[in-house]
Amino acid sequence: MIKNKNAITNFLRAILGIIFLMSAISKMVAPGLFEITILEQGVFASREFVAYLSRFLIIMELFLGIALFQSFYLKKIILPISIFILFAFTILLSFSVFAGDTNNCGCFGEVVKMSPLQAIVKNIFLIIIGIVIFRLQDDNQTKIYVPFFILLVSVGTVFGIAPIKSYENLVFTQYTNFENEGRVDLTNGNNLVAVFFIECEHCIETAKEIVKLENETGRISNLYILFAGEDSDSVQSFIDKTQIEHPFMRIKMVDFFELIGNSPPRIYWLKDGKVNEFWDNDFIENIKRYQEISNN
User: Fold this and answer.
1) pTM assigned to the model
2) Distance of alpha carbon 234 from alpha carbon 138, whole angstroms
């Protein structure tokens, strides 16, 4: 008989519970990034479906995190689900590892960044802890209403804090992975998106003006750049000419022509993914106004 069995199981349950809680809470802060992480596995094609799947996983993490601190139906329900969820996450992460993805896996949102491989190692460690707890834990199959109540609270909390939004007609949902930043959710909060053509002199001058403004007032937050150009055009040459340093990605010409007006550049001000304003001129004045409003 293991001495202090209850103390050991309680300690291990606390570790597992805290990690589940941290994982759930960090994902609720920016659920869109978790959706994008799942979507990029290539298993699911619909972001709407992934939105519901992500909420289900967050609910289960929150439920398990709280339920591990009570004593009812641990061996019958809570611990088996905990081990299964960890195993499912590990399988999901394996797709990223095989694809060579080294970006933040999203396990702890943006609070603690981990690569998919690091997350798999973490999950294996937690699975071992879960199995040890299962072997040591006494079985108490009374008061089923306690874990059921915790589940209801978890559902209400997740959908209350991180409701599912409609992604219909949100043009910028497809732009999710930027150089120098990794995964980005343009459907969350205030964001500026500049659409530049690499060899466009007006775009180059606008970028230089933005850099000049930043040198005077500080870095512009949440500014992302979409570059278009011929295959031979180099984004680095644009950066070298302008010294602009913001997350960027290249887009197809067909997307570029849908996003600009009569001529580039164009800058969009997004609020939760919806176009609040777009500007084809007076960029610096509009950016200053954006900064003033965003900072208030």
Assistant:
1) 0.79
2) 64
